[in-house]
């Protein structure tokens, strides 16, 4: 199973409040990684890209849930 599929499956069972907390933590971690990368190169610069995609997946899932609740 791909990492994307595992991540999506893992967020489906989590409450909205926990997802919002996870989203904020991910955004903070992204800022720290970007700052560290600006100072000195990271071992794995692709981790920034992966984290950005995870943040987008969480935001998309939250928007889909809010749209489903309104409908």
TrEMBL record:
InterPro entries: Ribosomal_uL29, Ribosomal_uL29_CS, Ribosomal_uL29_sf. One of its GO terms (biological process) is translation. It comes from the Bacteria. The keyword Phosphoprotein does not apply. It holds the Pfam family Ribosomal_L29. GO terms for molecular function: structural constituent of ribosome. Keywords: Ribonucleoprotein, Ribosomal protein. One of its GO terms (cellular component) is ribosome. CDD domains: Ribosomal_L29_HIP. Gene3D superfamilies: 1.10.287.310. Belongs to the universal ribosomal protein uL29 family. This is Large ribosomal subunit protein uL29. It comes from Niabella soli DSM 19437. The lineage of its organism: Bacteria, Pseudomonadati, Bacteroidota, Chitinophagia, Chitinophagales.
């Amino acid at each position: 199973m791909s990492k994307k599929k595992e991540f999506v499956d893992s967020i489906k069972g989590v409450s909205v409040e926990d997802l919002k907390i996870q989203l904020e933590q991910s955004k903070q971690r992204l800022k720290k990684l970007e700052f560290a990368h600006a100072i000195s190169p990271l071992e794995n610069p692709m981790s920034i890209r992966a984290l950005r995609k995870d943040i987008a997946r969480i935001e998309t899932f939250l928007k889909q849930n809010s749209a489903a609740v309104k409908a």
